[in-house]
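Minutes, project check-in

Agenda point 3 was the complex the collaborators sent over. CS summarized: two entities, 412 residues total, and the question is how they sit relative to each other. Sequences were read into the notes so everyone works from the same version.
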Amino acid sequence: MILIIDLCWKEDSLSHPEFVDPIVNIVKSAGEDFRIVHHLLPDLEKQDDFNAIILCGTALKDNGFRENERLIELIKNTGVPVLGVCAGMQVVALAYGGELTESLEIGMKNIVPVKNDEIFNATEIFEAYKLHGMRIQPNGNFTLLAESVTGPEVVKHISKQVWGVLFHPEVRNEWVIGNFVRYCCR
Amino acid sequence: MKLGVLFSGGKDSVFACHLAMKSEEVVCLISILSKNDHSYMFHTPNVSLSALQAEAAGIPQIRIESQGEEEKELDDLKAGIAAAIERYDIEGIVTGAVMSVYQASRIQRICRELNIWCFSPLWYTNQEEYMQKIISSGFKVIIAGVFSYPFEKEWLGREIDSQLVNELKLLSEKYSITLSGEGGEYESFVLDAPFFSKRIVIDESESFCKNYNGRYIIKEAHLEEK
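CS then shared the predicted structure for the full assembly.
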């Protein structure tokens, strides 16, 4: 069972079908059960039955999730694998260290693999869809798995099963989420 | 949140409008009337009839004419959105983008420049479920243009119903076409939607098609009470 956390500005927002549902569709295709919980709901803390957590992205103008200390604490203390996508990567940085800096990128960009692991196993440069106003400058807690000309794109915590992906893998790079789901539910 | 919908009159923009109206306040429609039939950005068949749809929906419409030159048409779109901010105080726009990163990223950039929200509620939606929802939600949509093999003249003007979706499914398994026409294989026009208070009735139309490239032109139409 995967816990999919909706980071959008309110529950059942108009951003939900754009940033949460495409990830839900990939989890469904991988044959895994899931529960979607909005980051501001009390249910967020009831996460014992889950194999993994996916933190979805949200709209460019949406920054409210950064103020949710309960969410950041949950990610910091969880024992299950975490995949943070775009805004979700920011939450990973807020939980484990890493500076957030302004960096606006919209559209398809080249991603260069640096190091492979269980979920990120690309060998060649590939294109990915970017939609972000901020990026993270990882600290020593993270290993760099992929980068672009503008900075880190995929990072993994050095000792925890926590990944952050800056681009949107649900668009044209579904394999990243598929690998994560299969790895966590194997 | 007050929103404007980028409105071409095709199924995607009208369905996106329908979704937006469920949770937010749609205060205007923004339509770009492109003179370029092959615009990558804007849907073109019968877009001039979007005024009739706006009237049927009872939502004010901002209409911007564009020569449709690549990239310059983005300035026209930006002007249309800026006019909506000025006149209707919108805080965001809604698009019917389904899979086109070309469209989506250009609209996202304009929204960023104008400091407003951008919503694409059909983004990467499950195409088969989406087509079924169009039918089950009470939309009446016809095929208004075909632009790829194997679509011929008999597709023009056909209503999107379960039989048509089944035929599209068979074709999508055989040829590289998307079920929703997102790759530009076909275009559509909405005659009725759940949020229309009146429906569009076509009085006179004309179809032409050559080399799997055809259009269904609505020459005269009127509104009727539902």
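Noted in discussion: Chain B has two domains: 2-119, 127-225.
Follow-up: revisit at the next meeting once the mutant set is ready.
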